[in-house]
Amino acid sequence: MQARPLPDHVFTEVPGDAHCRLREELLSSRVVLPSPWVGSGGPAEVFLSAAAGPVLDRLCQDGVAAAQLDMPLTNEDFLRFGRLLGNLIAETDPVVQPYVEREFILNLRTERGSTADVFLRPFATSALSLHTEGSGRATGDQPRYIVLMCCEPGADASAATVLVPMDAVSGRLSEEDLYLLSHTRYRGRTGVPTIARRVDHRIVYSFRDFQGTPLEWECAVGSAPSAAVHAAFRSLLAAMYARQGAYAVQWSRGLLVVIDNFRFFHGRSSGHSRLSGKPRHLMRLRIQSPAGQA
Questions:
Q1: pLDDT (tens digit per residue) in 264-288
Q2: How far apart are CA 143 and CA 138, in angstroms?
Q3: What is the gyration radius of the CA atoms in the chain, in angstroms?
Q4: I need a labelling partner for 157 at 20 to 30 A (CA). Which of 97, 183, 218, 256 fits?
Q5: Rounded to the nearest 5 degrees, what angle is found at the Cα of 267, between the Cα atoms of 106 and 64?
Q6: Residue closest to 130 by CA, chosen among 230, 259, 256
């Protein structure tokens, strides 16, 4: 029988933590954040041949790229664009199967009101805490890119996708915090990377804000006291939710956004708690880098 984790190797936030207030502020629909640069993608029917290249160049440069098309891409062209980035990741979670199309496309429709169920939050009006996609997966199974396409912005235009650059987060952390985070990982997850690691001369994070859900962890620095690791988690969370450097994507029909999962945390600000009018509908792809690339 596997031993139960020691209580001091479980991190749980408390209401007085600084990041709780910062999270409430950043993910509030009242906060106005700058938008990332958006290029003109032109007509959807010629996007792949005429405008996809500049989008990919911008992604390489900035870690995020956006293009406004005259209408959403067809499912086939959406998949073709995803394959330009790397290998598509199939959506296999049983919970989301009602929203999956063509094996790889997840339809993010805001069909539910506010909910505490973490599995249903992508389909609800609740705020979605900052995270990296696939943080609990083995390193080789984590997506490098996330592609989002707006099919319908919906009646609730207040909910925005929030992006926070990892470089800005790292700049707010002490060397001691970064050292501990680079030796700490989720407990009991085979092959999962440390919370912080270096990739292509950048510090990359593999972390989700679990809010009130306990996070079991393990640290390779045997002499590190649990209090120091927990302090590093709190510093990381406060750095993630600091407003400086954050962006917000306000969705419009035909807007295509690509996010580098190794360079940005992402989440969603809260919308109206009551559903009315058309639900927002985004399509999502998750992409792995081709074999041999970081």
A1: 999 999 865 455 568 889 999 999 9
A2: 10
A3: 19
A4: 97
A5: 80
A6: 259
Angle (CA) 158 164 94, round 5°: 75
Q: Residue 123 in 3-state DSSP?
A: helix
Alpha helix (H) residue ranges in the chain: 18-26, 47-50, 52-62, 75-85, 166-171, 175-181, 226-241
CA distance 282 to 101: 12
Q: List phi, psi (to 5°) of 237.
A: -65, -40
Report residue 115: phi and psi, to 5°.
-145, 150
Report the Cα–Cα distance between both ends of the chain, in Å, rounded: 37
Q: What is the DSSP letter of 141?
A: G
Q: Provide the angle, in degrees to the nearest 10, between the axes of the packed helices 18-26 and 226-241.
A: 20
Query: Mind listing the pLDDT tens digit for each residue in 197-241?
Result: 999 899 999 999 999 999 999 999 988 999 999 999 999 999 999
Task: Give CA separation, 26 vs 112, 125, 212, in Å.
Answer: 22, 16, 17
How big is the chain, counted in residues? 294
Amino acid identity, position 38: V
Q: Give the residue from 285, 180, 288 showing the smallest Cα distance to 227.
A: 180
Give the Cα separation of 124 and 120 in Å (integer). 6
Of 292, 293, 294, 288, give the one whose Cα is nearest residue 86. 288
